[in-house]
Specification:
The complex is a heterodimer. Chain A has one domain: Orthogonal Bundle (MetI-like fold), CATH 1.10.3720. Chain A is 72% helix and 0% strand. Chain A contains 12 helices and no strands. Chain A has helices at 13-51, 57-61, 74-105, 110-123, 127-141, 148-172, 176-183, 189-200, 202-218, 221-224, 249-258, 265-299. The longest helix of chain A is centred in the N-terminal third of the chain and has 39 residues, at 13-51. By secondary structure, chain B is an alpha/beta fold. Chain B has one domain (4-112, 182-263): P-loop containing nucleotide triphosphate hydrolases (Rossmann fold), CATH 3.40.50. In chain B, strands 6-7-8-3-9-10 form a 6-stranded mixed β-sheet, sandwiched between helices. The chains are: A mainly alpha, B alpha/beta. The interface between A and B is medium-sized, with 24 and 34 residues.
């Protein structure tokens, strides 16, 4: 065999084995990726199958029922958005300020490590524990009883570390060359952050906030004891009272399946699950599109 | 070390000597425990181009970053020594590094336009320093872009993203951005090393123009470039400033054996 001519053909046993392993691993990884897709499709499909018959205009807008069949989830949908907006209102400024401080200003040291450590510890607190903490502080200690505000503040505590981390990571994605370019023109650090770093980080920042919004929207355990399992009855579906009970959609889903007395609890639960799932999917999809659109706009493509 | 002031009268074709715009005396720079610059001293003559040459890792970039206090941004870097601008020590207590950088602008190795429009890039520094009014900013932007020989290429798309420009255009935009704030000294850290030959020659022509109004310090790894564009040259080797002088002296009659070895290509 001519040494030069045979070079493209695999001959040795070792090479054959390496190629076989390579093919096997490629296949295994592909199968793993495919299984995620299949699982999600099955999951969505099943919830759609169960929940779709329950969906109607009446179901989406009517107040829930305590005893009779035919209750809706109108106030719950409203409360979910209301508590989401309240939570973001409290969380975003604090988390962004903390993230900016840690990423842009903090120099390595005891204080920085302490803040990081606290944030990480806070991030690992199970949401039910945070719910009990909210119960102790807002419901009992402050005598607010079970309220929308208490629920939103509990969710603020729960999501503060994640949003701070999102901010840090978004800022870390901005090349130092931008900071240096700005500083070399005689800009102060704050001018650099406000005019160059934050606008450059707007896409990952927005994506991260919307994803966390989806999480807040679906949060349940932390709200059961703090925002409550009922909507203020006798009022309209749209109750802006900060100190009123405010059962969200996800809490309602838990409630109908575990404690509800209505005969059509399964129908209400399945419908709620579908609405919740669709909402969270919308958050995730819009996070992608917003991120894509913003980076196009700022990166000039 | 040869001081430039003691050099003999220049031959024909060489610009007359000027007073030093900046002086560096006994500069030491440390990255943690590693000393990157060892006791370097240099005079930077006004309205001239001073080139810093030397092999990779010799400390020339570290040196120029000490000229406008860019090292302040990195807490692990320590700078010792005296650096003056118009005989004023920029490292003296109470000196605002932001004000220093306003007077000593910097162009970096890789073009780093902000992800904003061409116009917003050029007027960035002006806005930082309080300039307002669209028409006023427009005039200043045009002047700076003309100064950086970029106006004709971008005048019809000022509101396009700067990231649409080619690498060479981006670098000229960065020069325009620095020129716009009218610093006194422009420091360039290998401004053409990421560019193709045509873009490089445009930048070199531009540097020749800029020295009419500004004092220029340029780091380059290309000896040919140093020979083409600079009036004075400083040679660095492993953190030491080996020799400084008029560019033609450094290239044709270096006094230090190590300079000669580098010029004749005996170092990588």
């Amino acid at each position: 065999m001519a040494a030069a001519a045979a070079s493209f053909h695999v001959r040795s046993a070792g090479a054959v084995r390496r190629r076989a392993v390579n093919a096997l691993m490629t296949g295994a990884l592909w199968a793993a990726a495919l299984s995620i897709l299949v699982l999600l499709a099955f999951f969505v499909g099943y919830i759609l199958y169960l929940g779709a018959p329950a969906i109607s205009w009446h179901f989406l807008t009517a107040p829930p029922s305590e005893v009779d069949a035919g209750g809706g989830i109108g106030p719950e949908i409203f409360n979910s958005f209301y508590i989401l907006i309240l939570t973001l209102f409290f969380t975003t400024p604090i988390a962004m300020a903390g993230g900016i401080y840690l990423q842009e200003y903090a120099r390595p040291g005891l204080f920085t490590s302490a803040v990081q450590f606290c944030a990480e510890s806070l991030a690992t607190v199970p949401s039910i524990v945070m719910g009990l903490f909210g119960l102790l502080v807002f419901v009992t200690m402050l005598h607010w009883k079970v309220t929308a505000l208490g629920g939103a503040l509990t969710l603020t505590l729960l999501n503060l570390p994640a949003l701070m981390r999102v901010t840090q990571e978004a800022l870390a994605s901005v090349p130092d060359a931008f900071r240096e370019g700005s500083m070399a023109l005689g800009a102060t650090q704050w001018q650099t952050i406000r005019r160059v770093v934050l606008p450059s980080a707007i896409a990952p920042l927005t994506t991260g906030i919307v994803l966390i919004a989806g999480r807040i929207f679906g949060e349940t355990a932390a709200l059961i004891f703090t925002a409550g399992v009922s909507v203020s009855t006798g009022r309209s579906a749209y109750d802006f009272g900060l100190f009123h009970q405010a059962e969200t959609l996800s809490v309602h889903l838990w409630y109908t399946h575990s404690e509800s007395l209505v005969p059509d609890a399964a129908r209400v639960g399945n419908g709620s699950a579908l609405v919740l799932l669709v909402m969270v999917l919308i958050f995730n999809l819009s996070a992608r599109f917003i991120g894509l659109g913003l980076s196009r706009r700022f990166m000039g493509k | 070390m040869i001081t430039m002031m003691s050099m003999p009268a220049p031959p024909d074709g060489v610009l007359p000597e000027t007073a030093p715009k900046m002086r560096v005396e006994n500069l030491n720079v440390y990255y943690g425990k590693l000393q990157a610059i060892k006791n370097a001293s240099l005079r930077v003559p006004k309205n001239r181009v001073t080139a810093l040459i030397g092999p990779s890792g010799c400390g020339k970039s570290t040196f120029v970053r000490a000229l406008n206090r860019m090292h302040d941004l990195n807490p692990s870097v320590r700078v010792e020594g005296v650096v003056t601008l118009d005989d004023e020590d920029i490292y003296a207590p109470g000196v605002d590094p932001v004000a220093v950088r306003h007077r000593i602008g910097m162009v970096f190795q890789r073009p780093n336009p902000f992800p904003k429009s061409i116009f917003d890039n050029v007027v960035y520094g002006l806005r930082i320093h309080g300039a307002r009014g669209r028409r006023h900013l427009m005039e200043l932007a045009e002047r700076s872009l003309r100064h950086a020989a970029l106006w004709d290429e971008v005048k019809d798309r000022l509101n396009h993203s700067a990231l649409e420009l080619s690498g060479g255009q981006q670098q000229r935009l960065c020069i325009a951005r620095v020129v716009a704030v009218e610093p006194e000294v422009i420091v360039m850290d290998e401004p053409a090393s990421a560019l193709d030959p045509i873009a490089t020659s445009k930048i070199e022509d531009l540097i020749g123009e800029l020295k009419k109004d500004y004092t220029v310090v340029i780091v380059t790894h290309s000896m040919q470039q140093a020979a083409r564009i600079s009036d004075y040259t400083a040679f660095f080797l492993m953190g030491d400033l080996i020799e400084t002088g008029k560019t033609r002296d450094i290239f044709f009659k270096p006094t230090d054996k190590r300079t000669e070895d580098y010029i004749t290509g005996r170092y990588g």
